[in-house]
Amino acid sequence: MSVPRVARPRRFLVCEPRHFAVRYAINPWMRPDTPVDVDLAQEQWRALISAYRAHGHTVDTVEPAPGLPDMVFAANSAVVVDGRVFGSLFRAPERRPESTHYDTWFKTAGYDVYRPESVCEGEGDLVWTGRFMLAGTGFRTTPEAHREAQEYFGHPVISLTLVDPHFYHLDTALFVLDHDNIAYYPQAFSPGSREVLARLYPQAVLATRDDALTFGLNSVSDGRHVFIAPRAEALAARLAERGYVPVPVDLSEFQKAGGGIKCCTQEIR
User: Fold this and answer.
1) d(Cα 10, Cα 77) in Å, to the nearest integer?
2) Strand (E) positions, 76-137?
3) Taking the model in full, what pTM does it have?
4) Known catalytic residue at 263
5) Reported confidence tier of residue 35, pLDDT bands at 50, 70, 90
């Protein structure tokens, strides 16, 4: 039996894919010889922004910079909780200049920005649940950055180990549905991390590998509406059974770079 779900207005920071391309390979999805349709990417991105606004959410934009094709993936730039901004230090040298542009946006908007000393890729690996931070490690963000985040925010940070290179960021394998529940793909995690998630979220919505490989877990939920990849049909059906409302948005062009809906979306809390 499904429970009535309540949407909560969110504020998102995004970056137009004006310079989007696949120029290097830093994850299993990226093939530099694969052409990218920038016009299609722009069209898909605009559809996502329209969907957010149609459901009552506020969207701010940061200006894209030439030579930074992955800057569209705004989630990786920071994590923001209670108006406090914990910035990024990318593992790949190609992406490190992105941090400066996002830091500048936040500072101009009146925020203080903490720059981590350890490799940390923002909401890619730091997922705020409303009570504590779930933090991924294994491919990008380091356990040292988890400790830095806990010291900075003063909220508990729970480290989870990712083991499948296709799910190199936590936000490709897990997303928060509301303050009480999550959806995730168990096999993306180490055995101990799976046990932790099962204890924390015994009623979690579990995804299949097929769901995960279509970027179905790179979704954004406002507590009721779940903005989700259209091909994650089985996961969408499970969410609907639980009372959530799937809102399919096709960002397939961004999958060529290993990204999806959540990757393109930074939440300002």
Assistant:
1) 18
2) 79-81, 84-86, 113-114, 126-128, 133-137
3) 0.97
4) yes
5) confident
Burial 192-204 (b: 16+ CB within 10 A, else e): ebbebbeeebeeb
Banded model confidence at residue 23, pLDDT cuts 50, 70, 90: confident
Burial class (CB in 10 A: 0-12, 13-18, 19+), 3: exposed
Query: Locate tokens 């015994």: which residue?
Result: 202
Q: Which one of 57, 120, 146, 263 is the catalytic residue? A: 263
Residues 185 and 181: their CA atoms lie apart, in Å, by 14
Beta strands in 70-170 (DSSP E): 79-81, 84-86, 113-114, 126-128, 133-137, 157-161
Tokens found for residue 146: 């988890």
Q: Could you give the 3-state DSSP secondary structure of residue 153?
A: helix
Catalytic entry in 169, 179, 225, 264: 169
Measured between alpha carbons, how far is 259 from 257 in angstroms, rounded to an integer? Answer: 6
For CA atoms 47, 235, 240, 199, the dihedral sign is negative
pLDDT in tens, 102-139: 999 999 999 999 999 999 999 999 999 999 999 999 99
169 is catalytic: yes
Q: Give the 3-state DSSP-derived string for 165-212, with helices as H, strands as E and coil as C.
A: HHHCCHHHCEEEEECCEEEECHHHECHHHHHHHHHHCCCCEECCHHHH
Instruction: Determine the pLDDT at residue 148.
Output: 98
How many C-beta atoms lie closer than 10 Å to residue 35's C-beta?
9
CA–CA dist 23, 196 (Å, integer): 37
Cβ-proximal residues to 100 (8 Å cutoff; 6+ apart), any chain = none
